[in-house]
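To: structure desk
From: M.T.
Subject: fold request, one chain
Message: Could you run this one when you get a chance? Sequence is below, nothing fancy, just the single chain.
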Amino acid sequence: MLKKIITADKSPTLYFPELDEHYHSVNGAVQESLHIFINAGLKQIKKDKINILELGFGTGLNAILTLSEIKNSDKNVYYETIEKYPLLPEITDDLFSKNLHFKEIAEQINNTAWEKETKISDNFVLKKIKIDLSDYFPEKNFDLIYFDAFAPDKQPELWTEEIFAKLYKATNKNGILVTYSAKGTVKQALRSAGYTVKRLPGPAGKRHMVQAIRQ
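Reply: Done. Structure tokens follow.
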């Protein structure tokens, strides 16, 4: 049974006992996502129209932070995200109910229909797809990929050269893939798929993260 956890930066996440895994870092869920996906990812894309692919929708936090970041900007984002086991809306609504800054955005993000494009705001279109990553084949090319699957030691089948090669084909030139894992096997799989891999300082509680670029 999922358990709500308040992390070190006072933001919530969920504990998934079947995998003995948290959806986000207990050292700070929001600070982790901001550090990895927004600062090392979104802010590095110097385009006004950005296609984003997220692998592992989870609680919706990365989508929430992305919309929050670009809401009052000139950037237009198409955001496609996949999740094999979507959380019930009542779980996600409760998760963000006490955060006034994110509450409205969270409800917009988490309560939209799956399998269809939804215009959340004038500059943010969301498409949520219920599918296993192994069965997913992108139909668009993307400028930015948020790779946020559960850890390699929990779901090793999602962190393979085969998976990354599939994503590489869907990455635009100079596009970026960011992920929290800096394991040697992950970096090697990314390199073998064709990416140029950079190891960057990680968020609180992690020494490193990875930014992979299609040159």
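Reply (cont.): The first strand starts at residue 3 and ends at 6. Let me know if you need anything else for the meeting.
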